[in-house]
Structures are given as structure tokens and as C-alpha cells.
Design a protein that fits this description.
The complex is a heterodimer. Chain A is an all-alpha fold. Chain A is built from 16 helices and four strands. Chain A has a domain of 291 residues. Chain A starts with 33 loop residues before the first helix and ends with a helix. Classes of the chains: A mainly alpha, B alpha+beta.
């Protein structure tokens, strides 16, 4: 009853172009290249390349060391967070599914790569230790010793079933994508086919995240319970120092972010993008136009879950440790917060939001921010930052639904079309580019 | 001269004999004088048994004096007396047999018998049979308690004897029960034991099971050839079947010395390591020893050279295992008793199962009422208004902290709870109204953004609580009359606080129904829920209704916070622990209907307790499975258990 989309006075028009051909490529013109149609891609990729170059040149491994190794890691992790924010923006800002489960996919990706890292590293350690024994160890003895090393903390020495492929990098890399993807497919299929939408879906995804986190917290989950996986910063069989390894991961994160941005931009630029925006704005109408809404939603949900898995697989080797607390529901809500503050419905908004909020958060909560003396009370940012963040989030939601990205609109003087005072649609926070450029 | 001396000696000896006849207790003590003065726990038993079993009236007094270190030995003739201290150095001796004073002597002529704590415990056990008929009821109760804790066969006869003269009905019942238990454990008559077992087979007491379980305890024994008919066989075991591991069976044979040890990989490695000779073991190079066949080969060469013991191969193990019989044998020799005990334990287990189910139902009910309490406010804001309030958990937390603050001001727990409940309502009502006015009303058309904005408020409130109250848990103490538990029997019990919460949940249900069905506000709320515009054109102010409804939902969350704080620790995370479950309750139950919320809470509570029952060590797993179950449940009833129909459903 409160939903403006159901209100006949404001619902006309914003899907008018959907049934027809996409805006570009009309009347048989050769479609212009993606980058020409979306200059923001070029700007973004250039900025990302420059940033990567600068960090590389200033890092300890290559240049004068103005940027410490730990800060290179922080920047690399931030790039991964930007990537998962893009995934979130795709699924929420473009498709209108407020998923509170994408950080769970992120964590699953981390777990998958973490298993291989931990297994191989432990094998190196065990093999070194056993090489000194008078009799060379059998394969079974090595595996037993690895099991004891890894699972000693949870009172076991047997390898659980989920570790069956931990010794194969290729399979674990495939699982980084497959496990989140399949989980998203199954969950999405269950949720979408029963037409769970809106806040219901949000709560359900949150429940899924909580269930996964609680499951991983158990010692018999096979992933070391609340100890999580550790020592992930060491690449097995690589003798290079951390300063170099961190740079490699930084490059990999930058490349993944660039590719992820390109993929996302390509997805949302064509007809597919129009359909998912249509689903966001009025799902029923898109369904009546003959589109398989569930199929589109399922596709975007699973693809973004895979992107999140890749981001997590790059993030946790830089963090060095992963445990179930990382994928608690609150993390996924923060992900939504970043995207909302950055500005959803635009890919660079997600990147800006994730980078800005996560870096500022770590600056404030890391104790580096100077205290603010007010005379009667000294504001310690470690204690007050979350309050500021929470309230600023309320303010952004209320007064600047386009987030930081909205500032770009002021600069490019792109505005939403004049609808003579009528609502833009159910979700004014998301800018409809097709309309805005009309 | 010698003759006279001998005569005197004989006379003295005769006197001693005479003394012994007139003073039997002294005689018993003298008979065991050596071990009494030695005072060692391991050897003292015959002395205590002799005194306790003498059947003499004054025997308990001897034991009591001995136990309380009042027994002294006169050094001149070695006789034992009870001694009372008169002044610093002088003691009055009292004869054990007559109870009469037997002179006053200096401490120097006496030596005290100092039994250690182990001996005193043994004496206490022996004393129990006398105390059972003690005139003092408290003493009799002590004796019963002691006997219950520490049953022994000797007490059976005195216990039976004491039953007839017991005036106190409560003690009589206890004695009857104890007599049955001791009969089961120690009676020499098989029929009496079986009868007692049958009689007690409907009793749920832990002590009955503790008495029966030793009767059916078994151990695995190995027999060469046939099992003798005297053994009370529980069941025969075949290695490799019935959960009886072949490895374990063979290890038993090895332990008994019936077979050679098997080819254990660790042992093999040890032996091989010990015989490395110039980079070779036997004829095998060390570098080749990284597979099991190579190691076996090397070991075989060692055996051939006489450097290692031969080890059993798999075929030999099979042959050895086949030539022995394995069986579980009852420690209790009487087959009739073990059969009866097994049957009784089976009957008891069935009854315990039934009562455990009842107990589980009570647990589930109480969990359901907690979820209901936590979710009812949400059912109003989310269910009725369609507003998702992520800060709902923080309103619960606010209520709990309000209770904590009130308890700091009002020390009386009953009064403080009575003050805290309306105050918590007022505080969270105000907070809810403020939030509705400032934030939520701008977002009615953007439900997803309400979720995010209220989440922002939620993290801000949580951090604020942390800044004010710190991160440590604060106590919210329940009044004394809510302490303890209502125990129906040894299996079923429920704490009063959970009953109180159940009652509170019922009251809330009633209040909610009353407000919704019988008041103006309820009528207007329902009207606005069904059709906001139509309601507005009927003269209802939807803004005001929304504000009050939201305030009401928040206020109820505050009261729920006080209730939850009574049994959970009050921390800033209190609310977030319940928020997901609350949402689940509302979603599963169905939006917009209080009965749905009730059904949702009941279903989640019962399901969670049910899973916990199947896997009691793991509440995390229970929650995981519950959420998976809910996700699946939504498949079949996407709109919850109680779904709205018609136009209201589309709102």
C-alpha cells in the first residue's frame, strides 16, 4: 500500500523503452564499442592503472619504500573490497536485489583458496621436519602428519571430506568460483521461484549468511571452527620476501578489479542491463513483457557471487587469516553500506564507496586519527567512529540517495529527466542512465 | 619363690580372663589392640567390624569415642577407655562396658588413639547402622543420607530392623526406598532381589538407575574353547561384527599373551630405524624405505637374520581370532537378576524418554515465548506497517539497559523490576517515535532503504551503548522469588524465570489483541494497514497512526528487553543476538497477523529444541539447521504460516 510503484499516478513511463531495441545499435547501425559508449570505463581503467603504477614504484620491493609492505597489503585488500562492491552494485543497484549474503560468498572464496595455501604450506613444513628422520616418510605418513598439524586445534587429525582436493591448486581455484556460484544458484533458485522479493529476500539472504557463519563456527565443520585458516600470506614454494609477494597480490587484485569492472560494465550496457534495471523498477511489468525474470535474477545473483568469491580468494591471502567471524551477517550489511554511500546504480560509485569508507574506517578505528577535544569531553574516534558512520549513513540515505557518486552528476551536469514532480520510480537512489542521457 | 611368682602370674591371667568375660567390649578392643594402635586405614577394618558386629548395646559409643578421638589407651595395662579432659593434665577415664568412671589419671599415663580421616570415614560407615534407630530424627536423616551416598551390605539388616519403629512418615518413606535399593544391590536371596527390582522398575530416580547399572555392567572376556556354564553371558562377540573391532579383539589377545603383536607401522619404523647399517636396513637401501611394501620387505630380512621379532600377518591374526571365544560377561553372577535389571532399566528408559519429551516440550515452549517476546514488537512494525526496523534489536537492548540502570537506583529487585517495565516501555516508545518522525516516515516508499537507514541507527546505538556502559556484561538480577526451578520429578523441571517469561508472553498476546481489536488506535491501525488513502479520507490521520504504532512496537521491544535481560547477560550485542531470529519468526509466521507470529515463534522454538535434542552437544548446529529449514519452509509457504488473503495481501 505504501509502494509508489503500485500507485497509478506515478508509475507510467519509466519502462517504455524496454520492449524495444536497446538505445544503442538502433536501426542497424554498427554498435559502437563498449568503451566509447561508456567513457567512464576508460577513465576508471586509466585511474586504476596509474594508481597501480604509483604504488608499485613507491613500494618497498621496487622503489624507495615510501609505501610500506603492510600498506601495500591494505591497498590490495581495498581493491578486493572494491571488486566485491561492484558485485554488490550489480545485484542491488542494477537488479534491485538487496543481498545480505555477498560477503558470505566472498568468505567462501577465501576459504577455498585458503585450504590449498594452508595444505601446501603445512606439507612444506612437515616434509622439512620429516626429512631429518632416519627413514624417509611414506606418503601416508606425510598426509597423517599434515592432518595432525592442521586439525590438531580442533582435536582431530583426520582430513574431512571437504579437503579432498586441497592438494590441487587447479581444483581449488575452480572451487573458488564454483562453490559460491553453486550455492548462489541453489539459494537463488529456491528464493526466486517462490517469488520472495524485497525485504523478505534481504532477510532470507541474511539468514543464509548467518547459517553459514554458524556452521563454520563448529569444530566439526571441517574448516577448523573458529580458529579459521591461518598463515595464508605465505605462498608455498615461493622464496620471495613478503614485500614482493604483497606486490604480486596487489597487481592481481588490480587486474581482477579492472576485469571485473569491464565485465560488469559490459553486462549492464546492453539489453541485458536494460532488463535487469527493469526488474529493479517494476518486476511484474517485466514479467508481463515476457521476460523470464527468475532466470535473469538467478544469472545476476550467481555471477555476482562468483565475482565475490574471486575477490575473497584474492583478499584473504593478503589478510593472512580467515575465520567465520569474517562472514557474519554484519559484514554483508557493511558491504551494502559502502555501495549506498558510494552511490548505487553506477559501477564507479561502488568502487568509490568501498575504497572511501573502508580506508576511512580503518584510519579512524586504527587509532591513527587524532582525538577531538571539545573542552568538556574528548572524542576518541575509536569509540565514536561507528556512531558517526551509522548516522552519516542515515543522512546519506535520507538526503543524498545517490551517494558520493551523485557529486559526479553535478560535475557532468547530468540530471534525471524532469518528471514534473512525479516520482522517479520505486527506487530514486538508483540513477537510470538510459533516461538520464535522453 | 619361683612357684609363688608363677602362681601370682596365673592368678593374674585368670583375672584377666574374668575381666574379659564381664567386659566384652574391652575384650574385643584388646583382641585388636595391635591394629587399633597401629591406626592404618588398610588394616583397621577387622577391628571396626568386630566392634560394630558385636551386637552389644554400647558398641556405638565406642565407635563414636574412637571417631571423635576420645579413645585413650592406659599405658600401664593397655586397656582402652573413653577419656574426658578435667583440666590441663588430668583426664577422667570412663569404662566402655559399664559407662562408669574408672578413675582420674594424668595425661602422661595415657596415649591417645588418633584415627586418620580415612579411618574416621570407615567408622562413620559402621556407625550408620546404629544411627538408623537413633531417637534424634536429624541423626536418622544424616544416617540415611550417608547410607544413600555410600551404600554397604552391612547396613541392610539394621535398616530393615529400624523400619518398624520409625515414627516419622517422611523418614519411613526414605527408609523403605533405601531398603529396596540395598536389597537390589546386596541381598543374598535372588528372588528378593528380583522382586525389589521389579518393584522399583517404575521409579525415575537417579539412585535407582545408579543401583541397577552396576548389575548390568559387563566386561569382555576371552575363552579358549567353550564358554563355561557358570559364566553369566550377556552376548557372544564375533570379531569384526556387532561393533566389536577386529583390531581391538586382536589387541586383547596380545595383551593376554595369547598371540604375537601385529605388524604395526609405527613399531616397524622404530625397529627399522634401530637397524640402519651403512645406509641399508637388511638388504634394502634406506632411501627406498618410503613405501610400506619396501618396509615390510626390509623387516622380513631383519626377521630372517634374527634381528627382529616375528610379527603376525593378517592370516595368522585370522587363525588366532578364530581359535578363541569372545563374550561379554556380566559381573553379576545371577542370570535372573541381570535379566530383571535389564528389563527394569528398559522400562525406566521408556518412562524417562516420555518425561524427557515433556521436559523438551517445556523447554521449547519457553524458547518459543522468548522468540515471541522478541518478535512481537517487530510483528507490529514490520508486519503491520511494512517497515523493516533493523534497530529493533537495539530497542530490546535499550530496555535491558533501562532495567539495569533502574536496579542501580532501586536496590529492591522486585520493586525495581516493577518500575523498570513501564520505564523501559516509555524510553523505547520515545525512541521509536523519534525514529519514526525523523527517519522512517521519509522512507515509507523505499522499504529497502528503510532497512539500511535503520541499520545505520542500529550500529550507532550499539556503539553508543558500548561507550556508556562499557563492553562488559551488566547484570540484571531477577527478584528472589523467581530463583530456582519447579521440579516435577528427577527428569522434568523448569525454572520459574522461564515460567514468568511464558506468562509475560501470554500477557503481551492479550494486550496486543486488546489494542488491535478493542481500541480506537487498533481500529485506525488496521484501517491504515488495509488502505492508507481510504483511511485518510475517512478522517484518520495516517501519520499519527504510524507514529503511535511504531512507538507501540518499539515500547514492547523495550519490555521484552527487560525480560530477556533477566536471564541473558546485558551487553550491547544483546539485541543483535535476537534480531535474525525475530525476523525469522515474523517471516515464518506470516506478516500482519499476531497469530502468525505466535505460530512462527512456536515452530522455530520447537524445531530448534528438537534439533538440539538430536544433537545435544551442538547448539550452533541446531541454529544452522533451523535457518536452512526456514529457507526451505519459505519455499512451500512463501507468505508464512498464516498468510493474509485478498487485498490486504497485496498491500
Amino acid at each position: 500500500m505504501l509502494d509508489a510503484a503500485k500507485d497509478p499516478s506515478s508509475g507510467h513511463g519509466y519502462l517504455d523503452g524496454l520492449g524495444a531495441e536497446p538505445t544503442t545499435g538502433r536501426r542497424g547501425d554498427a554498435p559502437k564499442p563498449l568503451i566509447v559508449r561508456n567513457p567512464s570505463i576508460l577513465v576508471f581503467l586509466t585511474a586504476l592503472a596509474l594508481f597501480t603504477l604509483t604504488v608499485t614504484v613507491l613500494s618497498e620491493a621496487v622503489g624507495p619504500g615510501l609505501i610500506s609492505t603492510s600498506f601495500v597489503k591494505t591497498l590490495g585488500k581495498t581493491l578486493c573490497l572494491c571488486l566485491v562492491a561492484i558485485a554488490m552494485d550489480l545485484v542491488w543497484g542494477y537488479c534491485g536485489i538487496l543481498s545480505l549474503g555477498h560477503f558470505a560468498f566472498f568468505g567462501l572464496g577465501g576459504y577455498m583458496i585458503g585450504m590449498w595455501l594452508m595444505y601446501e604450506r603445512t606439507r612444506d613444513i612437515v616434509a622439512t621436519a620429516m626429512a631429518e628422520a632416519p627413514i624417509p616418510p611414506t606418503d601416508a605418513e606425510i598426509v597423517d602428519a599434515i592432518g595432525t598439524q592442521i586439525f590438531g586445534v580442533v582435536g582431530s587429525s583426520e582430513f574431512p571430506l571437504v579437503w579432498a582436493f586441497a592438494d590441487s591448486l587447479a581444483i581449488q581455484l575452480a572451487l573458488v568460483v564454483l562453490v559460491p556460484g553453486v550455492l548462489a544458484l541453489v539459494f537463488g533458485w529456491l528464493a526466486f521461484r517462490s517469488r520472495v522479493t524485497g525485504v523478505y529476500l534481504s532477510i532470507l539472504t541474511q539468514a543464509m549468511t548467518l547459517a553459514l557463519a554458524l556452521y563454520l563456527f563448529q569444530n566439526d565443520s571441517g574448516l577448523r571452527g573458529n580458529n579459521g585458516l591461518s598463515g595464508l600470506q605465505n605462498l608455498p614454494g615461493v622464496a620471495a620476501p613478503q614485500s614482493v609477494v604483497s606486490l604480486w597480490f596487489f597487481w592481481a587484485s588490480a587486474a581482477a578489479l579492472g576485469l571485473g569492472y569491464l565485465l560488469a560494465a559490459w553486462l549492464v550496457s546492453g539489453k541485458f542491463g536494460s532488463v535487469i534495471r527493469g526488474i529493479r523498477d517494476n518486476e511484474a511489468r517485466v514479467r508481463f513483457l515476457g521476460y523470464s525474470v527468475e532466470g535473469y535474477k538467478l544469472f545476476i545473483f550467481a555471477v555476482t557471487a562468483m565475482i565475490a568469491g574471486i575477490a575473497g580468494a584474492l583478499y584473504y591471502p593478503q589478510a593472512g587469516i580467515i575465520n567465520p567471524a569474517e562472514i557474519a551477517p554484519i559484514a554483508s550489511i557493511y558491504l551494502a553500506v559502502w555501495v549506498a554511500i558510494g552511490g548505487r546504480g553506477r559501477l564507479y560509485g561502488a568502487v568509490i564507496g568501498a575504497a572511501f569508507v573502508s580506508l576511512v574506517s580503518s584510519w579512524f578505528t586504527g587509532g591513527q586519527a587524532p582525538d577531538l577535544p571539545l573542552g568538556f569531553y574528548t572524542v576518541k574516534w575509536v569509540d565514536w567512529w561507528l556512531i558517526v558512520l551509522g548516522l552519516s549513513f542515515v543522512l546519506v540515505t535520507l538526503f543524498a540517495p545517490r551517494g558520493i557518486g551523485g557529486l559526479v552528476d553535478l560535475w557532468t551536469e547530468r540530471r534525471a529527466p524532469d518528471r514534473h514532480g512525479a516520482d522517479l520510480g520505486p527506487d530514486p537512489g538508483a540513477l537510470r542512465e538510459q533516461e538520464a542521457t535522453e | 619363690m619361683t612357684r609363688i611368682f608363677l602362681a601370682v602370674l596365673m592368678l593374674l591371667a585368670a583375672m584377666r580372663v574374668a575381666v574379659a568375660q564381664e567386659t566384652p567390649l574391652q575384650a574385643i578392643l584388646q583382641e585388636h589392640a595391635a591394629i587399633i594402635t597401629k591406626s592404618s586405614r588398610t588394616t583397621i577394618k577387622p577391628a571396626i567390624a568386630a566392634v560394630a558386629g558385636s551386637g552389644l548395646d554400647r558398641a556405638p559409643e565406642v565407635l563414636q569415642a574412637w571417631q571423635s578421638k576420645d579413645m585413650w589407651q592406659r599405658e600401664s595395662d593397655g586397656l582402652f577407655f573413653r577419656a574426658e579432659k578435667l583440666d590441663g593434665q588430668t583426664y577422667r577415664l570412663i569404662d566402655f562396658d559399664t559407662g562408669e568412671p574408672a578413675g582420674e589419671v594424668s595425661k602422661k599415663e595415657l596415649s591417645q588413639i588418633k584415627p586418620n580421616s580415612g579411618i574416621r570415614a570407615l567408622i562413620a560407615v559402621a556407625l550408620v547402622q546404629f544411627q538408623l534407630s537413633d531417637p534424634d530424627p536429624a541423626r536418622r536423616l544424616d544416617a540415611l543420607v550417608s547410607l544413600d551416598r555410600d551404600p554397604n551390605p552391612e547396613a541392610l539388616a539394621p535398616l530393615r530392623a529400624s523400619i518398624d519403629g520409625e515414627p516419622d512418615p517422611a523418614l519411613l518413606a526414605k527408609k523403605h526406598r533405601l531398603e529396596r535399593l540395598l536389597t537390589i544391590a546386596y541381598d543374598s536371596d535372588e528372588a528378593a532381589r528380583v522382586a525389589a527390582i521389579d518393584e522399583m522398575s517404575t521409579d525415575l530416580g537417579v539412585d535407582v538407575r545408579a543401583t541397577l547399572n552396576p548389575l548390568v555392567a559387563t566386561r569382555i572376556e576371552i575363552f579358549e574353547g567353550e564358554i563355561p556354564g557358570t559364566a553369566n553371558v550377556a552376548r557372544r562377540l564375533t570379531p569384526g561384527k556387532d561393533g566389536f573391532d577386529r583390531t581391538a579383539a586382536y589387541t586383547m589377545l596380545v595383551d593376554k599373551g595369547f598371540a604375537a603383536p601385529r605388524l604395526d607401522p609405527d613399531k616397524v619404523r622404530e625397529v627399522l630405524t634401530a637397524h640402519i647399517d651403512g645406509g641399508r636396513v637388511g638388504d634394502v637401501p634406506v632411501s627406498r624405505l618410503d613405501t610400506m611394501p619396501a618396509r615390510a620387505e626390509a623387516y622380513a630380512t631383519l626377521v630372517a637374520a634374527g634381528l627382529a621379532e616375528p610379527r603376525a600377518t593378517e592370516e595368522e591374526i585370522d587363525i588366532r581370532l578364530a581359535s578363541y571365544q569372545f563374550a561379554e560377561i556380566y559381573a553379576e553372577t545371577s542370570a535372573a537378576v541381570t535379566t530383571a535389571a535389564n528389563a527394569a532399566l528398559g522400562r525406566i528408559a521408556t518412562r524417562v524418554g516420555v518425561y524427557q519429551a515433556a521436559d523438551l516440550t517445556l523447554d521449547a515452549l519457553s524458547l518459543a515465548s522468548i522468540y515471541f517476546l522478541a518478535a512481537i514488537g517487530l510483528a507490529i512494525t514490520f508486519g503491520v506497517m511494512g517497515v523493516i526496523n533493523m534497530a529493533h534489536g537495539e530497542f530490546i537492548m535499550m530496555g535491558a539497559y533501562t532495567g539495569f540502570v533502574v536496579q542501580q537506583v532501586i536496590p529492591n529487585h522486585t520493586a525495581s523490576i516493577l518500575v523498570a517495565i513501564p520505564l523501559a516501555f516509555a524510553v523505547t516508545f520515545a525512541a521509536g517515535v523519534a525514529m519514526e518522525r525523523l527517519v522512517i516516515r521519509w522512507l515509507y516508499s523505499r522499504p529497502l532503504e528503510t532497512l539500511l537507514a535503520t541499520f545505520g541507527i542500529s550500529i550507532a546505538l550499539q556503539q553508543l551503548a558500548k561507550n556508556i556502559f562499557g563492553t562488559q556484561a551488566r547484570p540484571l538480577t531477577a527478584p528472589g522469588w523467581l530463583d530456582g526451578a519447579l521440579a516435577l520429578n528427577d527428569v522434568v523441571s523448569i525454572s520459574y524465570i522461564r515460567i514468568a517469561i511464558f506468562v509475560l508472553a501470554l500477557i503481551f498476546l492479550g494486550v496486543f489483541l486488546f489494542i488491535m481489536k478493542r481500541t480506537r488506535l487498533g481500529l485506525e491501525t488496521r484501517a491504515v494497514t488495509q488502505n492508507r488513502r481510504m483511511a485518510a479520507s475517512m478522517g484518520i490521520n495516517p501519520d499519527r497512526v504510524n507514529m503511535l504504532t511504531f512507538g507501540l512496537g518499539s515500547g514492547i521491544a523495550g519490555i521484552a528487553g527487560v525480560a530477556i535481560g533477566l536471564f541473558a547477560k546485558v551487553t550491547s550485542e544483546l539485541g543483535s543476538d535476537y534480531i535474525v531470529q525475530s525476523f525469522m519468526t515474523v517471516v515464518v509466521g506470516g506478516v500482519g497477523n499476531i497469530w502468525g507470529t505466535l505460530a512462527g515463534a512456536a515452530m522455530i522454538g520447537f524445531f530448534q529444541k528438537g534439533v538440539e535434542w538430536l544433537n545435544p552437544s551442538n547448539t550452533l548446529a541446531a541454529q544452522t539447521y533451523m535457518i536452512v529449514f526456514i529457507i526451505l519452509f519459505i519455499q512451500f509457504r512463501p507468505r508464512g504460516i498464516v498468510a493474509l488473503k485478498g487485498r490486504a495481501a497485496e498491500a
